[in-house]
Write a structure and sequence with these properties.
Layout (H helix, E strand, L loop, with lengths): L1 H19 L2 H23 L6 H16 L8 H15 L5 H28 L1 H25 L3 E3 L3 E5 H18 L9 H29 L14 H18 L5
Antiparallel strand pairs: 1-2
Length: 256
């Protein structure tokens, strides 16, 4: 029951944010989410330097804020390189491995969440809902198809419950959903191209899920945190979205 209630509250909150929040507040929201998710990520990968960890959290939020304003893709590498370099100099007490792992949070978390806000601001709520709905449809069908027909593990060393049959069900569902509903956002695009976009999105979503599962397995924990009752942490809820969002945003022409 706790999981169901938390899910309803999260869904209602996300929909309200998409439909009603002004651009500035939306950018603040993704900045906060990036910071919280970064705290969870840094905990999973073992970045525990007392000076370095707050710095990476701040920079991940800062990247989300900047990207949400519509920063061009061509300028992102230079911005990230500058931020990572500045951080490495200032927090030079961090080990090299921690510096690399911490800097990855800017790309893994900060950029995609900033792009999500940029999508909402640039293309409106329909585009945002289409993105999230495609991920939800794919995830749901992966779960139920896996329960009904799953026999062959997809990645047993990383996520034992995921099956090849479940992945196939999610791929078919997500691809068909984008092919049918994608015209709402991309009215001039042929169905075949929309289906290809949906196919790529689903594959990226599966990779995002497996990536976070690997992080948790390496850290020997079930969830990234206990922040959300019955659902784990913020990172647990957005793992697939982090991998899918950049591809969709580029396809939507929001970040060029």
């Amino acid at each position: 029951m706790t999981r169901v209630l938390s899910g309803i509250v999260m869904a209602a909150g996300a929909l309200a944010a998409i439909l009603f929040l002004p651009s500035v507040i939306l950018r603040v929201l993704v900045t906060v989410l990036a910071a919280v998710a970064s705290v969870e990520y840094l905990g999973l990968v073992g970045v525990d330097n007392r000076r370095g960890r707050p710095g990476f959290v701040f920079l991940a939020g800062y990247v989300a804020w900047q990207v949400s304003s519509g920063v061009q893709m061509t300028s992102l590498p230079m911005m990230l390189l500058f931020l990572a370099g500045a951080f490495a100099v200032f927090f030079k007490s961090s080990t090299g491995q921690q510096a690399v792992l911490g800097a990855f949070s800017l790309v893994y978390i900060g950029m995609p969440l900033g792009m999500l806000a940029a999508l909402q601001i640039g293309r409106g709520w329909r585009a945002t809902v289409l993105l999230i709905a495609t991920v939800v449809v794919s995830d749901s069908l992966q779960l139920y198809t896996g329960r009904l027909f799953g026999k062959h593990p997809l990645a047993p060393a990383i996520s034992p419950k995921k099956t090849i049959e479940g992945a196939i069900g999610g791929v078919i569902a997500g691809t068909l959903f984008m092919a049918l509903a994608g015209r709402i956002v991309f009215p001039d695009q042929p169905r075949l191209r929309l289906a290809l976009l949906g196919f790529v999105m689903v594959l990226l979503g599966i990779l995002g899920d497996l990536f976070e599962s690997r992080l948790k397995r390496e850290a020997n924990v079930k969830d990234s945190s206990s922040l959300i009752p019955g659902h784990g942490g913020v990172l647990d809820r957005i793992d697939a979205l982090l991998f899918v969002t950049p591809a969709f945003v580029i396809a939507a022409g929001v970040v060029t």
